[in-house]
């Protein structure tokens, strides 16, 4: 085991546990647990959004994808960033004005039905679990390579840490772990980029020139068009990337941890700057790795290119820099999985247990207990699945999560705010159709079936499953009969609330 | 008509919604079109594959322009949103002027 790497890893664990210790003292009520009492400031939340969002898939995956596939890998960076315009312009402020602890609160503000909360909780659990398994599988593989620990040991260590942060420290600890991670990740990425650029007299154009000269033009040029289906697949991927973020429950609950819509708005703009600067550096990392480490060595270390960034750090800065960058990757994964656990736990404890099973009659103490047990249950469940999913390709699990979020959650969120006729049946139909449609299409796609036999030809089903979600919302609403006067009045109420932030009239 | 209905009928609320949609609708259409031009063009043509600056081609320049577009639109929205906030305050003022309460 690499001693420097080991001490960096221990340093990060100690730091995050200290944060949890201090947060735990404040973590008394359900509001503290779910949304840190709604007291996070704009810049803190901005950093935390960035920390919650830039997962192992972003840091390790995109660098590797650009190193091996060139321009196609950069699509992820663009889509993940532009997605914040959907969040900022359409979703975030109404969500802040209508929500309390979870995404389901916002929909239930209009349609107060158990079926709505149950379906929304189910979607949150499904999306968060897929996302979490991907992070855990990636984390296990990377720690195994860097520290020599067994895959299962690595997964269990991360699983225990994320459970401790969430159960003891709730949203406050999760937020600060995400802030620390965002600062570490930006620091590490800027340092690595500057060292790469120093070899090209700090001229990015020179980096592109040298890469094209050494590896060939195909490294920097988009691949030439092939078939109609392949083109459609690429467009479909981009659709899921740009629409998925606004339906990801662990990102949406971040807007509920701030006091008002104005702060939510400020925090998104702050996050968009950080996330954008980070993604702007991904070609430097990817091409730097391809140029210095070489595509063959990258593929040899990990076929998907997931170790390109750490390999680049080792090449340019030796063992100590490798240890630092690996520790950054470790912190990245911890922060993201903690965010996922808390969003899944709130969906289960707040939406399903408190509001559906106990019909809102559970005491504060009972709710806290349920939230803690839900966190433990979800962590154990994901760990067990991740242990079994060791040989799965992690990238399609993340794409699945984005696609399910865009298909199952986004139509309902948007129509709840903007469509006057929308009703309970339409909302439930849309959530279930989006979930089943996107997961079902992935199961019969080339991701799972051999390419020649796949019933559905696209790897990314978004272009079919997202419109399907909207269509189900429309049909469910129209076919279930007329909207009552009461329902129309309810819409007027939430429409005023969503746009003004007024909670009560007296 | 309930209390909320009366707020929805006020001039300042209607003005808020009118100003919001006249910014958000065109801005959303614009960024979706701007965003999808890139994957559509690279999927079905090679027009963006020509070199622009050194080895950097038009596809990369267009991609970088999406970053500038995102940041630019964020700040444009922030400026607009400050005006929306003023209108929200007017809505609240109108309610309290009529002896109601808005929290």
What are the defining features of this structure?
heterodimer, A: 506 residues, mainly alpha, 19 helices, B: 103 residues, 3 helices, 79% helix, elongated
Chart the SSEs and their pairings.
The complex is a heterodimer of chains A (506) and B (103).
Chain A: H1 3-26, H2 30-35, H3 42-53, H4 56-69, H5 71-98, H6 103-110, H7 114-147, H8 151-198, H9 204-215, H10 228-244, H11 249-252, H12 261-292, H13 295-301, H14 308-357, H15 364-388, H16 394-418, H17 424-443, H18 462-479, H19 485-500
Helix pairs in contact in A: 1-8, 1-14, 3-8, 3-12, 4-5, 4-12, 4-14, 5-6, 5-10, 5-12, 5-19, 6-7, 7-8, 7-14, 7-15, 7-16, 7-17, 8-12, 8-14, 8-15, 9-12, 10-16, 10-18, 12-14, 14-15, 16-17, 16-18, 17-18
Chain B: H1 3-9, H2 11-44, E1 51-53, E2 56-57, H3 58-97
Antiparallel strand pairs in B: 1-2
Helix pairs in contact in B: 2-3
* Structural class label of chain B: mainly alpha
Helices and strands of chain B, in N-to-C order?
Answer: HHEEH
Regions with little confidence, pLDDT below 50 for 5+ residues of chain B: none
Structural class from helices and strands of chain A? mainly alpha
For the biggest sheet of chain A, the summary is: none
CATH class of chain A: Mainly Alpha
Mean pLDDT of chain B: 92
- How many separate domains make up the residues of chain A? 1
Helix content of chain A: over 70%
Number of helices of chain A: 19
The percent range for helix content of chain B is over 70%
CATH T-level fold name of chain A: Sodium/glucose cotransporter
Shape of chain B: elongated
Average pLDDT of chain A, rounded to a whole number, is 88
The gyration radius over C-alpha positions of chain A equals 22 Å
| Quaternary form | heterodimer
What fraction strand of chain A? under 5%
Envelope shape of chain A: globular
Report the strand count of chain B.
2
């Amino acid at each position: 085991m690499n001693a420097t790497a080991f001490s960096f890893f221990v340093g990060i664990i100690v730091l995050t546990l200290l944060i949890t210790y201090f947060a735990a003292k404040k973590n008394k009520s359900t509001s503290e647990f779910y949304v840190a009492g709604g007291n996070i400031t704009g810049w803190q939340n901005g950093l935390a959004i960035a920390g919650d969002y830039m997962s192992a898939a972003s840091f390790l995956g995109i660098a590797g994808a650009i190193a091996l596939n060139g321009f196609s890998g950069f699509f992820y960076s663009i889509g993940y960033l532009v997605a914040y315009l959907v969040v900022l312009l359409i979703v975030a402020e109404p969500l802040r004005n209508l929500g309390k602890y979870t995404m389901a609160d916002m929909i239930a503000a209009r349609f107060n039905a158990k079926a709505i909360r149950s379906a929304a909780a189910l979607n949150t659990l499904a999306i968060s679990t897929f996302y979490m398994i991907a992070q855990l599988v990636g984390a296990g593989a990377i720690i195994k390579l860097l520290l020599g620990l067994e895959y299962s040991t690595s997964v269990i260590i991360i699983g225990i840490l994320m459970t401790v942060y969430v159960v003891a420290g709730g949203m406050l600890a999760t937020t600060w772990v995400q802030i620390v991670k965002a600062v570490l990740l930006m620091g590490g990425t800027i340092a690595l980029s500057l060292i790469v650029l120093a070899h090209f007299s700090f001229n990015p154009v020179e980096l592109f020139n040298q890469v094209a000269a050494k590896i060939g033009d195909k490294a920097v040029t988009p691949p030439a068009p092939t078939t109609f289906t392949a083109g459609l697949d690429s467009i479909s991927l981009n659709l899921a990337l740009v629409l998925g973020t606004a339906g990801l429950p662990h990102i949406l609950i971040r807007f509920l941890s701030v006091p008002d819509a104005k702060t939510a708005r400020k925090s998104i703009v702050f996050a968009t700057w950080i996330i954008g600067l980070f993604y702007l550096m991904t070609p430097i990392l990817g091409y730097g790795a391809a140029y210095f480490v070489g595509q063959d060595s990258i593929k040899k270390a990990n076929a998907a290119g997931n170790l390109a960034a750490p390999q680049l750090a080792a090449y340019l800065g030796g063992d100590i820099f490798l240890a630092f960058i690996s520790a950054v990757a470790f912190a990245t994964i911890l922060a993201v999985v903690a965010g996922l656990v808390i969003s899944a736990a709130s969906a289960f404890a707040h939406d399903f247990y408190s509001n559906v099973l106990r019909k809102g009659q559970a005491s504060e103490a009972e709710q806290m207990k349920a939230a803690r047990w839900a966190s433990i249950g979800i962590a154990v469940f994901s760990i067990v699945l991740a242990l079994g999913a060791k040989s799965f390709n992690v990238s399609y699990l993340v794409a699945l999560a984005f696609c399910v979020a865009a298909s199952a959650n986004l139509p309902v969120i948007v129509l709840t705010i903007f469509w006057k006729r929308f009703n309970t049946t339409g909302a439930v139909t849309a959530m279930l159709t989006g979930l089943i449609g996107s997961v079902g299409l992935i199961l019969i796609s080339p991701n799972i079936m051999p390419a020649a036999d796949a019933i559905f030809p696209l790897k990314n089903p978004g272009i079919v499953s997202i419109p399907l979600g909207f269509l189900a919302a429309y049909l469910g609403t129209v076919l279930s009969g007329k909207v009552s006067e009461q329902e129309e009045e309810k819409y007027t109420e939430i429409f005023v609330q969503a746009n003004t932030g007024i909670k009560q009239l007296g | 008509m309930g209390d909320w209905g009366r707020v929805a009928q006020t001039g300042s609320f209607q003005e808020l919604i009118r100003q919001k949609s006249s910014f958000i609708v065109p801005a959303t259409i614009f960024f979706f079109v701007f965003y999808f031009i890139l994957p559509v063009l690279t999927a079905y043509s090679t027009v963006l594959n020509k070199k622009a600056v050194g080895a950097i081609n038009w596809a990369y320049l267009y991609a970088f322009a999406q970053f500038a577009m995102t940041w630019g639109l964020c700040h444009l929205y922030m400026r607009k949103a400050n005006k929306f906030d003023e209108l929200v305050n007017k809505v609240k003022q109108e309610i309290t002027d009529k002896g109601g309460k808005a929290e």
